[in-house]
């Protein structure tokens, strides 16, 4: 057939098909195919016709032939699709999907709508075949196609919803990618919704959350979606319910989760899930009954919640309602049904809990059922170790089969290496079964598998294992590693502390126990161990505080009571070693109280009764008068309160306590303690001279107890030594037994210094000196610091009159305090001091001076007399040493005690001597009435008694009686020196009665005989008082001849200085003192004298006086207050201020002096002057006075100290008047005029005609007038002149009047007043006042010159006054005034600049003077246009901080 025929045939076929004549169409198509077998249209038409004729196989074959020839033609594919769609055969669905995919490919670029239709059909097909990923991907492509076409938001929203519809019901069969596409669809749908919030949006959100809840791995998205929905729909409970179920299912019951539960309950109080949440919260808070109530109520409303049933079962288990827990587990398992996914974990937990409940019920058959439950749990998890753990719990707790329990725990731990409970139980049971190797192997295996710091439980147990096996060094690293895993485990810190303690590392153990107690304050053991370590380290006060803290929490904690008592007992023993007996008694009382409480709580503990015995026996060292101890009444068998026991009763109580301890524990140490206690009781009875039969009985008991101790333990050297001490006592005197015991003690312990010393004492008491020396020598070689062997050597030296006796006794006092050593050393010091002829010997210098013997002996004798208050000779020696140390009150007390002890003695001579000593010491204290009474109470026959009585009368003011007593002393005086001394004393008494001639006669009588230093001094002093230069000079000349006999060079120098001062020879006065210092430069008294006199007689050398005072302070620190006072006065005289030296200035030094001696009135007066000086300096620099408003306080301090002192009344009056004037002047200076006037008026009330106060009052009033009026009328000026005339000898008064004239521009009158003041200053010889008057006169004249007054008188006056001032001293102010005069005369002259520059550059010049010179020099340099010198000046100003000069420079530069 031709092509035309083919086309015609195809056209006919098409027409036949259109007319539904499919058979005809087939004929035409077959005809075409005979001609063209690959004709596409023919095959398509055949497929279409065959399909209509219900010949699907032929149709399918035709379409496939067409596709084979033209695979990219659409018609065949469409036909095949229609054929498959009409077919109901299941096997065509796979081909249909292929057809749809091809259609999608062909439609994609040609027909978008049909592509979408085919896409829908293919998606539906995939959905039917459960190919959810393909469905999701197709929908994704469809939506992307619509987005590319620009579809509306609503249309896209519907597409997303359709996609969700396809996928949401089949979430369990979807893979991860499909799930993510579904979730993405939900998110897009939610974001593309039109109405938000809205019902459709809300439903969609619920579906989204429901979908997320099916995916366990999308927990974070679920939580976020629920929170977002809650934010949009706060009234909807659904998201809260889902969150609750999510948290419940996951077991994550955090604070946040519980907060959501609370919100759910607030939204709906009857909501079952909300009530369940309350129950879970109560369970966490351990409120188990409330939890059961809420969980039960919630499960009645929401019964299908397995987790809630599990929590209910757990709550029942907590309160031991095991059957109810079992029922809850069964209901939980019913609710779970066939568990899948996350539910498997819950089923496993419930089965384990059920097994635990069955085990706890302990019913018959319960174990079998429990095992079945555990087997069922194991099927769910083949490696379930917890099943075996529960079986182990059953065998351990119910069946009590530790061996099988250990096997189960071990199996559980093998299955689950992270199961700490099983591991710990296996280890603990192994250790209980004494299978240490198994326990250690488990622990080693665990610690080897994990890294450092992990498996904390294993590390702790291995550490405890090492502690148990006494290997603390190995325990420490394990416990440290455990702490690295959990640094806040208090129990682990406690274990580490125990390991350190066993290792001997006390400080680290202490830190560990403290850390444990900080982390857990309930760990009483840690607190106790920390306190015990402090006690072991000797920190007893800290240990006591720690024990007391423990007892505040636990009053009956016996270890703390025992430790507290031990600390107090140790402190008591330490106090006794230092002779603080009263403090020791306090500690003993506290120790007894603690031990008694401990014994009350634990009466059957032997060591507590032993410690009670030790405490009671400790008082044997204390004197009976001090040893009155308060003992708890319960210790004496009474009910409440305390009883005061004396020394004997307390020692007896100690014996009873030892006996009580022996009944509980038969130990040799307690037998030894009991024997020593009996010995101490006997020792006390011997000391107080009581019944000898009782003493013998106690000594016999002591001996038997010690023999018993030796029989029980013959190798203990302490028991042998104690037996030897008792046997050698004077009451027993069994020297053979004593020697045997000491030798046995030495044999038992070779290094036995105590036994060797006791053996030496035994030899010494029996007269074997050489053997005693050898024994003491051996003891010294064993322990050179042991006191008693040195004391034994000292006693031997004393017995053989050795040269080293005193040195040996001194060495004993250096080692430790002991009665024999103290009294022996005191005796030798006093004996040496009584020998007046040895003062210049080397022995005296070494033993007394260099070894500081007097204060050392005084200290040890003070301690000795406190413990031995009945030793009169010791009190006499103590009083003698107190006299040497000028401790007058203590000396009087010691002599008084000695006299009272000797009052009833038969030795009347000793009593008489003691009373004279007592009277002398009372007289030295100023208690003259008592001294006279003491002297008159005894018969006086010797020289010392009469002299003492005479002195007491003299100090009391009974001069006639004093002279009579001196006459009696003169009659019994044996030596000429004593007679001379008595005559001198009588002369002084005569002078006191104004009988000067009689006094002079007596002194001349002394000098006619052998010259006496004291009488010559008195005669010289009398000449000075009479102002008789001839007499004083003659006496001084004779005194200087006695230089060898007179060691008090300072007194002789003082007298010579007074004579020079009387003659007005200041230079000779200085030379006299300097000459003496040159001879003996190490004498502090001479330096102090120089420092005291220089400010008065050579004020220009005041700085040298300050240096002399400092040297005196260094040479004699005991007189630091006087030296500091002299230093401050000299520095004030030299014009030193705090601005010059912050540390060494008058104010600082006088403050130090007041701190050292606040009862010195003169020091307070100097402080007032120092404050005034500082305030004056501040006023000159126009600054605020730093120490204003102190005047009244300091004035009151001076008055208070003078009232309490014994100073002469004339001195007190002069000091108070000076201080009052100083205070007024200070107040006036700082502008407190009203206060100054009030103070003046107050002073004038008691001294109405005092010229200085009247003058000050006028000064204050004038200053007030000047402030208000400016000018003073003539009447006032006349009155001022009259007032000054009343004080015409006052330089300051004339200077003030000159200032008043100067203020009124009366320059000539001012000049005359200044000249008058200068005249007075020269007459009085006052260096300061001369210089002050000259400078004031120069300044007056300069002021007139500066006012450009054309009169040659004033410039000449400036030159004259400043020249005279410079002759007196190189005064910088005088140089400045000369320079200013030159500046006024010729500012630009070179000489002007030179003079000003010299003032600026002169070292040591006050900054106030330099600042003025710098100011004028700056003007001068600008006038001369000297830039180089100007730069130097400005650098100097910057260095000194002179702001005014720098500001002036800026102004002058700007002006230029």
Approximately how much beta-strand content do the residues carry? under 5%
Largest sheet: 2 strands, antiparallel
Radius of gyration: 59 Å
Structural class: mainly alpha
Can you give the helix content as a percent range?
A: over 70%
First CA to last CA: what distance? 131 Å
Shape: flat
Strand order of the largest sheet: 1-2
Uncertain runs: none
Task: Enumerate how many helices there are, as a single number.
Answer: 76
Number of E-state strands:
2
Mean residue pLDDT: 79
Model description:
Strands 1-2 form a two-stranded antiparallel sheet. The mean pLDDT is 79. The chain is built from 76 helices and 2 strands. The protein is mainly alpha-helical.
Short précis:
The protein is mostly helical.
List keywords for this structure.
two-stranded antiparallel sheet, 76 helices, flat, mainly alpha, 1456 residues
List the helices and strands and how they pair.
Blueprint: H1 3-18, H2 22-35, H3 40-52, H4 56-69, H5 74-86, H6 93-107, H7 112-128, H8 132-149, H9 153-167, H10 176-191, H11 199-213, H12 219-232, H13 238-250, H14 255-267, H15 272-284, H16 288-301, H17 306-318, H18 322-336, H19 343-361, H20 366-380, H21 385-397, H22 402-415, H23 420-432, H24 436-449, H25 456-468, H26 472-485, H27 490-503, H28 506-519, H29 524-536, H30 540-553, H31 558-577, H32 581-601, H33 606-617, E1 629-632, E2 642-645, H34 647-664, H35 668-687, H36 692-712, H37 717-727, H38 735-748, H39 753-765, H40 769-782, H41 787-799, H42 805-815, H43 819-834, H44 842-850, H45 853-867, H46 872-884, H47 888-902, H48 908-925, H49 928-936, H50 943-956, H51 959-972, H52 976-992, H53 996-1008, H54 1013-1026, H55 1029-1040, H56 1049-1063, H57 1066-1079, H58 1084-1097, H59 1102-1115, H60 1120-1133, H61 1146-1156, H62 1161-1180, H63 1191-1203, H64 1209-1229, H65 1233-1246, H66 1251-1268, H67 1274-1286, H68 1291-1303, H69 1307-1324, H70 1327-1346, H71 1353-1368, H72 1372-1385, H73 1390-1401, H74 1407-1424, H75 1427-1440, H76 1443-1455
Helix pairs in contact: 1-2, 1-3, 2-3, 3-4, 3-5, 4-5, 5-6, 6-7, 7-8, 8-9, 8-10, 9-10, 10-11, 11-12, 11-13, 12-13, 13-14, 14-15, 15-16, 15-17, 16-17, 17-18, 17-19, 18-19, 19-20, 19-21, 20-21, 21-22, 22-23, 23-24, 23-25, 24-25, 25-26, 25-27, 26-27, 27-28, 27-29, 28-29, 29-30, 29-31, ...
């Amino acid at each position: 057939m031709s092509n035309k025929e083919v086309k015609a045939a195809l056209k006919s076929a098409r027409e036949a098909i259109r007319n539904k004549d499919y058979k005809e169409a087939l004929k035409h198509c077959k005809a075409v195919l005979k001609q063209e077998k690959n004709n596409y249209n023919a095959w398509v038409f055949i497929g279409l016709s065959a399909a209509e004729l219900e010949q699907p196989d032929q149709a399918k074959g035709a379409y496939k032939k067409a596709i084979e020839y033209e695979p990219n033609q659409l018609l065949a594919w469409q036909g095949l699709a229609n054929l498959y769609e009409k077919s109901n055969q299941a096997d065509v669905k796979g081909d249909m999907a292929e057809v749809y995919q091809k259609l999608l490919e062909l439609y994609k670029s040609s027909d978008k709508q049909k592509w979408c239709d085919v896409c829908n059909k293919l998606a539906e097909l995939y959905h039917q075949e459960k190919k959810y990923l393909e469905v999701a991907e197709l929908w994704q492509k469809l939506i992307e196609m619509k987005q590319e076409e620009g579809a509306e938001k609503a249309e896209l929203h519907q597409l997303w919803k359709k996609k969700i519809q396809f996928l949401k019901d089949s979430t369990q069969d979807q893979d991860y990618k499909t799930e993510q596409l579904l979730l993405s669809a939900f998110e897009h749908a939610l974001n593309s919704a039109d109405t938000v919030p809205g019902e459709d949006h809300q439903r969609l959100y619920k579906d989204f959350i429901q979908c997320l809840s099916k995916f366990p791995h999308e927990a974070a998205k679920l939580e976020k979606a629920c929170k977002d929905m809650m934010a949009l729909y706060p009234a909807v409970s659904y998201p809260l319910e889902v969150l609750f179920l999510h948290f419940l299912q996951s077991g994550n019951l955090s604070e946040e989760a519980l907060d959501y539960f609370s919100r759910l309950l607030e939204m709906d109080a009857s909501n079952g899930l909300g009530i369940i949440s309350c129950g879970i919260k109560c369970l966490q808070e351990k409120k188990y009954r409330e939890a059961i109530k809420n969980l039960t109520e919630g499960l009645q409303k929401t019964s299908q919640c397995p987790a809630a049933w599990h929590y209910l079962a757990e709550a029942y288990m907590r309160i031991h309602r095991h059957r109810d827990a079992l029922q809850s587990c069964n209901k939980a398992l019913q609710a779970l049904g066939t568990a899948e996914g996350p539910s498997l974990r819950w089923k496993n937990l419930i089965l384990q809990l059920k097994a635990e409940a069955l085990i706890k019920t302990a019913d018959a058959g319960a174990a079998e059922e429990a095992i079945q439950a555990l087997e069922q749990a194991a099927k769910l998890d083949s490696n379930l170790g917890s099943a075996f753990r529960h079986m182990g719990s059953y065998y351990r707790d119910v069946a009590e089969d530790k061996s099988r329990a250990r096997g189960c725990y071990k199996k559980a731990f093998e299955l689950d290496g992270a199961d700490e409970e099983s591991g710990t139980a296996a280890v603990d049971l192994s250790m209980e079964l004494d299978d240490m190797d198994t326990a250690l192997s488990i622990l080693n295996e665990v610690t080897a598998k994990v890294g450092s710091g992990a498996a904390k439980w294993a590390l702790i147990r291995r550490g405890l294992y090492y502690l148990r096996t006494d290997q603390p060094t190995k325990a420490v690293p394990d416990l440290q590693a455990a702490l690295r895993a959990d640094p806040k485990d208090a129990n682990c810190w406690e274990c580490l502390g125990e390991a350190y303690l066993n290792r001997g590392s006390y400080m680290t153990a202490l830190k560990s126990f403290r850390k444990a107690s900080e982390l857990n304050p309930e760990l009483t053991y840690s607190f106790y161990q920390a306190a015990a370590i402090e006690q072991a380290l000797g920190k007893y006060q800290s240990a006591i505080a720690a024990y007391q803290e423990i007892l505040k929490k636990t009053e009956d904690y016996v270890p703390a009571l025992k430790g507290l008592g031990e600390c107090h007992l140790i402190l008591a023993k330490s106090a006794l070693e230092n002779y603080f007996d009263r403090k020791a008694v306090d500690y003993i009382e506290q120790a007894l109280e603690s031990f008694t409480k401990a014994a009350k709580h634990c009466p059957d503990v032997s060591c507590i009764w032993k410690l009670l015995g030790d405490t009671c026996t400790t008082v044997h060292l204390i004197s009976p008068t001090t040893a009155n101890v308060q003992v708890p009444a319960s210790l004496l068998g009474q009910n409440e309160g305390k009883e005061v026991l004396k020394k004997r009763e307390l020692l007896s109580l100690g014996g009873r306590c030892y006996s009580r301890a022996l009944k509980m524990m038969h130990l040799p140490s307690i037998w030894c303690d009991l024997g020593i206690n009996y010995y101490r009781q006997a020792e006390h009875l011997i000391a107080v001279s009581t019944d000898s039969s009782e003493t013998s009985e106690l000594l016999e008991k002591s001996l038997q107890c010690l023999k018993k101790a030796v029989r029980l333990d013959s190798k203990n050297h302490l028991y042998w030594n104690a037996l030897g001490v008792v046997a050698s006592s004077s009451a027993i005197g069994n020297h053979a037994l004593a020697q045997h015991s000491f030798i046995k003690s030495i044999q038992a312990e070779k290094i036995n210094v105590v036994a060797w010393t006791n053996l030496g004492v035994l030899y010494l008491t029996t007269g074997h000196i050489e053997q005693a020396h050898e024994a003491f020598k051996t003891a010294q070689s064993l322990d050179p610091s042991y006191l008693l062997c040195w004391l034994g050597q000292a006693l031997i030296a004393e017995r053989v009159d050795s040269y080293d006796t005193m040195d040996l006794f001194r060495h004993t006092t250096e080692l430790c305090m002991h009665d024999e050593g103290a009294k022996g050393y005191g005796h030798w010091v006093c004996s040496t001091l009584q020998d007046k002829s040895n003062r210049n010997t080397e022995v005296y210098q070494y033993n007394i001076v260099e070894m500081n013997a007097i204060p050392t002996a005084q200290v040890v004798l003070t301690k000795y007399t406190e413990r031995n208050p009945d030793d009169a000779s010791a009190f006499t020696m103590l009083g003698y040493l107190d006299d040497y140390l000028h401790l007058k009150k203590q000396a009087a007390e010691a002599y008084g005690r000695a006299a009272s002890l000797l009052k009833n003695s038969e030795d009347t001579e000793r009593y008489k001597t003691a009373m004279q000593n007592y009277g002398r010491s009372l007289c030295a204290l100023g208690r003259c009435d008592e001294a006279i009474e003491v002297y008159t109470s005894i018969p006086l026959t010797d020289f010392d008694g009469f002299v003492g009585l005479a002195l007491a009368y003299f100090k009391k003011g009974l001069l006639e009686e004093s002279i009579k007593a001196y006459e009696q002393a003169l009659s019994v005086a044996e030596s000429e020196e004593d007679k001379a001394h008595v005559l001198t004393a009588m002369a002084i008494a005569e002078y006191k009665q104004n009988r000067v001639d009689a006094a002079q006669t007596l002194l001349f009588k002394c000098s006619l005989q052998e010259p006496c230093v004291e009488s010559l001094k008195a005669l010289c002093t009398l000449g000075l008082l009479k102002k008789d230069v001839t007499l004083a000079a003659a006496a001084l000349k004779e005194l200087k001849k006695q230089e060898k006999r007179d060691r008090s060079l300072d007194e002789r120098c003082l007298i010579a200085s007074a004579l020079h001062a009387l003659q007005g020879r200041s230079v000779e006065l200085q030379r006299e003192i300097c000459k003496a210092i040159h001879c003996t430069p190490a004498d502090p008294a001479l330096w102090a004298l120089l420092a005291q006199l220089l400010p008065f007689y050579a004020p220009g050398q005041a700085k040298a006086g300050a240096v002399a005072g400092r040297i005196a302070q260094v040479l004699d620190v005991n007189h630091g207050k006087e030296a500091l006072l002299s230093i401050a006065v000299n520095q004030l005289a030299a014009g030193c201020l705090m601005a010059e030296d912050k540390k060494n200035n008058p104010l600082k030094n006088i403050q130090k002096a007041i701190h050292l001696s606040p009862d010195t009135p003169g020091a307070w007066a100097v402080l007032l002057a120092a404050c005034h000086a500082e305030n004056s300096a501040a006023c000159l620099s126009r600054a605020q006075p730093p120490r204003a408003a102190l005047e009244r306080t300091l004035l009151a301090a001076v008055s208070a100290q003078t009232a309490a002192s014994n100073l002469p009344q004339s001195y007190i009056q002069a000091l108070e008047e000076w201080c009052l004037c100083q205070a007024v002047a200070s107040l006036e200076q700082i502008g407190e005029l009203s206060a100054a006037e009030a103070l003046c008026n107050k002073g004038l009330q008691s001294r109405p005609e005092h010229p200085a106060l009247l003058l000050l009052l006028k000064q204050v009033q004038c200053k007030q007038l000047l402030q208000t009026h400016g000018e003073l009328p003539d009447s006032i000026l006349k009155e001022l002149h009259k007032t000054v005339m009343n004080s015409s000898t006052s330089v300051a008064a004339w200077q003030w009047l000159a200032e008043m004239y100067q203020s009124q521009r009366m320059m000539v009158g001012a000049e005359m007043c200044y000249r008058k003041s200068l005249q007075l200053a020269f007459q009085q010889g006052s260096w300061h006042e001369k210089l002050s008057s000259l400078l004031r006169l120069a300044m007056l004249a300069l002021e007139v010159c500066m006012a450009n007054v054309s009169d040659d008188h004033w410039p000449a006056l400036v030159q004259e006054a400043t020249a005279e001032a410079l002759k007196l001293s190189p005064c910088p102010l005088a140089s400045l005034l000369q320079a200013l005069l030159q500046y006024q005369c010729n500012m630009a002259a070179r000489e002007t600049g030179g003079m000003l520059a010299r003032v600026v550059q002169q070292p040591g010049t006050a900054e106030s003077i330099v600042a003025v010179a710098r100011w004028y020099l700056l003007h001068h340099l600008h006038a001369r246009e000297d830039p180089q010198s100007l730069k130097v000046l400005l650098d100097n100003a910057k260095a000194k901080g002179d702001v005014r000069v720098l500001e002036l420079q800026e102004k002058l530069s700007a002006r230029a």
